[in-house]
Specification:
9 strands, nine-stranded parallel beta sheet, globular, binds zinc ion
């Protein structure tokens, strides 16, 4: 297992962590001040400053991208399938322009929440089948662009509105169905916030192996959690044994960035330099 205690070379910042403190250019400048070498930007943050300007800023700062957030939201009614496909193809194009290592997929829940305006449905099995089909379709396009797709299983609390893929096993089953040859084109983004509770987690990480482990996201689970979306904790402030999960993915050969992704009303209210200083300190002592 890599020693993170003396530097933060393998820290990546998911830019949603400081999305309320400034735009993407401001965030990239802050990363440069703190010696952060990698980010994972969100599509809306890129769009807000313009793709070309974002590409220039990333190159100028010498940043790597540990991912691009996000593709997916595949579930919709029939009238919106074309919109879903085109939107995800644009995500691939943007990720390629930015030089991202993968696209993180949040697959969508029930159609009316993933693609508002869709006909209401309670059929989660149908939603899951739709996710399989849509990933298969996107995979062809992403392969051509040489952009791996990383399915992020989300905590079951998000099954209705964000993702009906809720366990690492479910995500890996999709990978095995759609990419049986383990080509590296399809894998998982494991976020400790979503998976720490799963009794099968360690066995599934071992099953994943190096070629399926495309991204690793960290934050913490606070007790009590006051808001299921926007009350994530800073690493060390909650109950997740982050280091044991990192040990497990690294035992499989994962050698990428440890990406900090904290959606938090608390941390969004603090100055960006304080947030980044704390991220670096916790990366060294807790992650
Ligand atoms: Zn994540």
């Amino acid at each position: 297992m890599r020693d993170f205690s003396s530097d933060h070379r393998w820290l990546s910042l998911n830019t949603a962590t400081v999305r309320k403190q400034g735009d993407l250019i401001h965030i990239i400048e802050a990363c440069a001040r703190h010696g952060i070498r990698a980010i994972d930007p969100w599509r809306d943050q890129v769009a807000a400053v313009g793709l070309e300007r974002a590409v220039r800023a990333v190159r100028h700062a010498g940043l790597e991208l540990s991912g691009y957030c996000r593709g997916g939201m595949f579930t919709s009614d029939a009238a919106r399938r074309g919109e879903v496909r085109d939107d995800n193809r644009r995500a691939v194009d943007e990720a390629a322009a930015l030089g991202a290592s993968c696209i993180v997929l949040v697959v969508g829940g029930l159609p009316q929440y993933s693609r508002p305006g869709s006909v209401t449905s309670k059929d989660i099995a149908a939603a899951r089948a739709q996710v399989d089909d849509a990933i298969a379709e996107m995979l062809d396009y992403a392969r051509a662009a040489k952009l791996p797709l990383a399915i992020e299983p989300l905590h079951p609390a998000y099954a209705a509105d964000r993702a009906c893929v809720n366990t690492t096993k479910q995500a890996l089953d999709i990978c095995d169905r759609l990419d049986p040859g383990h080509t590296g084109a399809l894998g998982v983004a494991l976020d400790v916030y979503h998976i720490w509770w799963d009794p099968e987690l360690m066995a599934q990480i071992a099953r994943a192996g190096r070629d399926r482990l495309l991204a690793f996201h960290v934050c913490d689970w606070l007790v009590p959690t006051k808001d299921i979306l926007n009350d994530r904790g800073m690493m060390g402030d909650g109950v997740i044994d982050i280091r044991s999960v990192r040990a497990a993915v690294e035992a499989q050969g994962f050698a990428g960035y440890s990406e900090i992704e904290i959606f938090s009303n608390d941390w969004w209210a603090r100055p960006i330099d304080e947030v980044l200083r704390t991220c670096i300190e916790r990366h060294r002592t807790v992650v």
